[in-house]
Design goal:
Layout lengths: L6 H17 L3 E6 L6 H9 L7 E6 L10 H6 L10 H14 L3 E6 L6 H13 L5 E7 L9 H9 L5 E4 L5 H8 L6 H8 L3 H9 L9 H9 L4 H11 L7 H6 L4 H9 L3 E2 L5 E2 L2 H10 L2 H16 L8 H11 L2 H17 L3 H12 L7 H17 L3 H17 L3 H17 L3 H15 L6 H16 L3 H17 L3 H17 L4 H15 L3 H17 L3 H17 L3 H17 L3 H13 L5 H18 L4 H15 L2 H17 L7 H12 L4 H13 L12 H7 L3 H11 L2 H8 L5 H14 L2 H13 L8 H4 L9 H11 L4 H8 L3 H15 L4 H10 L10
Parallel strand pairs: 1-4, 1-5, 2-3, 3-4
Antiparallel strand pairs: 6-7
Helix pairs in contact: 1-2, 4-5, 5-6, 7-8, 9-10, 10-14, 11-13, 11-14, 15-16, 16-17, 17-18, 18-19, 19-20, 19-21, 20-21, 21-22, 21-23, 22-23, 23-24, 23-25, 24-25, 25-26, 25-27, 26-27, 27-28, 27-29, 28-29, 29-30, 29-31, 30-31, 31-32, 31-33, 32-33, 33-34, 33-35, 34-35, 35-36, 36-37, 37-38, 38-39, ...
The structure holds adenosine-5'-diphosphate and magnesium ion.
Length: 859
């Protein structure tokens, strides 16, 4: 078939394939458009035109209530049995299969229906596609991606892989005319009726009705009316099954093969090794005409056929769909848990949870022990998915069930696990009572994994509240018991929680414990506990300004999480790296990282608080606009957690920004409250920093004992000693800030120089004031040069402009600035957006017009 108005798209696809074949570097193509616009047709036209040595692999997502885990990926890899592999091997296995087939075109159709495991694989491939000799084509309905849709989130993250985006537009009036010509139909009316939707247009043309159908559905049904009753019956039977239907399945529905042939001949169905509707829209239109009784009877017949397939094993996801529609509760109950297990095994947690939820709707029919197991599994899945309120509700149902069964050990175990969600959801009081109850129930029953976990949670509860001294004995109990039981998993976790409490409390033995925990987790293969341990070292160490240890752990954590596809967990460490960069004066690096973090739609919860605070602080220090929206959001989020560790950095950042604006008093209420909290906790740095701001606000005299030394020295007027302490910690801004409070001209000059070196305009300005006051001659110039750039461009973006002007590619710019190509990509797209232009050449012209010097790349 000749496709109308797709020549450009086809040649772009051809070019992309050419790139893959010649360069060995892969390409991701995103084909989007509404249902029926022609995505599949375009992709098929392209794949059928590729040279014979190019292998084409095709997989489609299905439209079941809950899609089959890895469904399209399994089709793409052909006979390879991915399901036999452990989850973390799946990614590399898919990569190997595709690379082995090079050059290869892999198509994943209708990704808006993709299951979680498939999305994970797509995301993995998408990020590595440049290193794979594969043209990866993903089609989806753009109009079905609501704000939080998982595919939308993933596509946002793939923006840096430079995907080729093909938007399949409706046919134009001229296009519709061309199609309509042989039929003698009024093309104008056809075009306006169908708005150029290719499926709608072609469906209308296939009917011989006199009047044009009003809707897609009418068009489909008008065609149906032209078929014989047996053919219509065949269509109805097939319409009940989403996706391609096997012939044997149609046989069990008493579909006559001659009727099937008629449908295929008329182009309503498409034949092959299985039978499909010409389009999902047609299937749904037919399905819609079935009366409930007939529909249910068909589902019942399909359910029984799928329970005993003539070949292969039972597909429980598919079976569960039809059993649900048939109202066949026995089969729902039997297949739901199996479908859930199969989904969870490959990392499709969302689908696993959906299967369990559907099964548990018939709770009263499930034996109590089984019900408990299902509820317990469901709670853990929801917890892992980060749906904490739902997880809490599921845990509560499980607890009730365990209580009914008179099983205190299980109640205790569930409570110990539930604690994490209660705590993450910010219910601090409730978290305390949950973990207390767990310990109380489990202790009399003697040592157990559950009790070791409960001890570890008890330790965490204190540790998170920065009651570090109180945390210690619980942590020790947890570690000892878990070790005695040779429970490596709990040992790793307990070592991390107890180690961080000790280390932050000034005991370096805690750091050893943390490191032992990470090693143990590596040794026994618990990747998420490796990430957990490293991020504890990084964030805990960062909080007490043990930068050398912290930064190494954070970097390792980010890399490790990336390697093991634990991306969103590594993100917390990434936010902490940015915070350390801000505190240690690496502001360009911090800005790049914060930019990346702010774009990620997975940046939530404590990671977002950390990101917002670090960015707010950085902007305030640089005198950039946009400080307060960030710090307002961070404050609201931190207040909801109720934790000092979240609240204090935000409050301190707000004080700093307000002080630079000359209105510190505005922050006093928040500051006073946070300080009061800090005085009830074990955190010298919180006491020091918050006390310091109270002192600057003129409210507090010398700091109380237990405040971190550099702040105490500063407040005591020993600014040189304070500055020296900051130098030793590697915090230049704080160093200069201390010196700027000196009366000695040399100190003031040094403070000024450091501020200028950092690009800290507001503080430099204040230092100038102090210098004038002390009668020190003020150097001219540098301050002017740090004035803000035009069009809201950052320094880095201005720096990149001459490199763009000199015709360098992103890769060349990246090499020159020693930053990643991805980051350069961000900068360039920012430059384009801020200058409101579309091409690099236009950006250069616009920059020149703004008076930016684009001729000389800075050395
Ligand atoms: N460019 C085109 N020119 C002519 N007909 C088209 C074109 N694109 C699609 N069609 C027709 O529209 C139908 C639906 O297109 P399809 O590719 O299945 O849509 P999508 O995959 O976007 O939902 C096809 O079966 C084909 O008959
Ligand atoms: Mg399609």
């Amino acid at each position: 078939v000749h496709l109308i108005e797709r020549d450009t798209a086809l040649s772009q696809l051809g070019d992309a394939l050419q790139e893959v074949r010649s360069g060995g570097s892969g390409r991701l193509v995103l084909v989007s458009g509404e249902a029926g616009s022609g995505k599949t047709s375009l992709t098929r036209a392209f794949t059928s035109s590729v040279p014979p040595d190019v292998l084409v692999r095709w997989g489609a997502c299905d439209h079941l209530h809950t899609p089959r885990p890895l469904g399209p990926v399994l089709e793409v890899v052909g006979g390879f049995d991915l399901l036999a592999l452990p989850r973390e091997r799946v990614f590399s296995a898919v990569t190997e299969v595709l690379a082995g087939a090079a050059p290869c075109v892999a198509v994943v159709e209708d990704a808006h229906w993709a299951d979680e495991a498939t999305l994970d694989v797509l995301s993995y491939l998408g990020r590595r596609v440049l290193d794979l000799p594969v043209l990866l084509i993903v089609t989806y309905r753009a109009d079905e991606l609501a704000a939080g849709h998982p595919l939308r989130i993933m596509l946002g993250e793939l923006a840096t892989s430079r995907p080729l985006r093909l938007s399949v537009e409706p046919l134009s009036r001229a296009g519709v005319e061309e199609l309509a010509r042989p039929y003698g139909v009024d093309a104008g009316e056809l075009h306006s009726r169908t708005r150029g939707n290719a499926f709608f247009v072609t469906e209308c043309l296939a009917t011989s009705a006199d009047a044009l159908p009003e809707t897609v559905r009418d068009a489909v049904l008008a065609r149906l009316g032209q078929l014989s009753p047996p053919a219509r019956a065949a269509l109805e039977a097939a319409s009940v099954v989403p996706g391609p239907v096997e012939y044997w399945l149609l046989d069990t529905l008493s579909v006559e093969s001659s009727a099937l042939d008629t449908c295929i001949e008329r182009g309503v169905l498409v034949g092959g090794d299985r039978v499909s509707f010409r389009h999902e829209l047609a299937r749904l239109a037919v399905l819609d005409t079935l009366l409930p009784g007939r529909r249910r009877a068909l589902h019942t017949a399909i359910t029984s056929a799928l329970s005993r397939p003539p070949v292969g094993t039972v597909d429980h996801a598919r079976l569960a769909h039809h059993a649900e529609e048939a109202g066949d509760v026995d089969t729902v109950l039997a297949s739901g848990p199996l479908a859930a297990r199969a989904a969870a095994a490959v990392g499709a947690r969302r689908e696993a949870a959906a299967h369990l939820e559907r099964t548990l709707r018939h709770e009263e029919r499930i034996a109590p022990e089984d019900r408990l197991q299902l509820l317990s599994d469901l709670s853990m899945l929801l917890q892992e998915l980060g749906h904490h309120e739902d997880a809490i509700a599921a845990y509560e149902r499980a607890v009730t069930q365990a209580e009914v069964l008179g099983d205190p050990r299980t109640v205790g175990k569930l409570l110990a696990r539930m604690w994490s969600s209660v705590s993450m959801a910010g219910h601090l009081q409730r978290a305390e009572s949950v973990v207390d109850r767990a310990v109380t129930l489990l202790e009399p029953l003697g040592p157990s994994r559950a009790l070791a976990l409960a001890y570890a949670q008890r330790c965490s509860q204190h540790m998170l509240a920065r009651e570090l001294t109180a945390a210690r004995p619980w942590g020790e109990r947890a570690v000892t018991m878990a070790r005695e039981l040779a429970d490596h998993e709990t040992t790793c976790y307990a070592l991390a929680q107890s180690g961080i409490a000790r280390w932050m409390n000034g005991d370096d033995g805690g750091l050893d414990g943390l490191r032992d925990g990470v090693e143990l987790a590596r040794e026994h293969g618990y990747p998420s506990l490796v990430v957990h341990g490293l991020s504890q070292i990084g964030s805990g160490g960062g909080e007490v300004r043990r930068y050398p240890e912290a930064v190494v752990a954070l970097q390792e954590c980010v890399e490790y999480a990336e390697r093991f596809e634990l991306g969103s967990r590594g993100m917390y460490s990434s936010a902490w790296l940015a915070r350390c960069d801000v505190e240690q004066g690496r502001w360009r690096q911090a800005a790049d990282r914060l930019d990346m973090l702010m774009r990620s739609s997975r940046n939530e919860g404590v990671t977002r608080i950390t990101t917002l605070t670090a960015l707010g602080r950085l902007r305030a220090r640089r005198g950039d606009p946009g400080v307060w929206p960030l710090l307002d959001e961070a404050l609201a989020m931190a207040e909801r957690t109720g934790h000092l560790q979240r609240l204090w950095p935000v409050v301190a950042a707000r004080c700093e920004a307000a002080w630079l604006d000359g209105r510190l008093a505005d922050e006093l209420p928040t500051l006073t409250a946070a300080h009061e909290l800090a005085m009830r906790r074990d955190s010298p740095w919180a006491r020091g920093e918050l006390g310091f701001w109270l002192w600057r606000a003129g409210v507090l005299g010398p700091l109380e004992p237990g405040a971190a030394l550099p702040f105490a020295l500063h407040v005591a007027g020993e600014v040189r000693a304070a500055a020296a302490a900051w130098t030793q910690l590697g915090c230049p801004y704080e160093e200069a800030d201390a010196l700027a409070d000196s009366t000695d001209p040399d100190d003031l000059r040094r403070a000024y120089d450091v501020f200028i070196g950092l690009g800290a305009r507001p503080a430099a300005q204040r230092a100038v004031g102090a210098m004038r006051h002390a009668g020190v001659r003020v150097p001219r110039g540098p301050l002017d040069r740090t004035r803000s750039n035009p069009a809201g461009l950052t320094d880095r973006e201005v720096e990149i402009l001459p490199l763009i002007a000199s015709g360098r590619t992103n890769a060349e710019i990246a090499a020159r600035l020693q930053i990643s190509v991805k980051t350069v990509g961000h900068h360039v797209s920012h430059v384009l957006a801020k200058l409101d232009v579309r091409t690099r050449a236009e950006a250069v012209t616009a920059a020149i017009a703004l008076g930016i010097d684009v001729t000389s790349p800075r050395p």
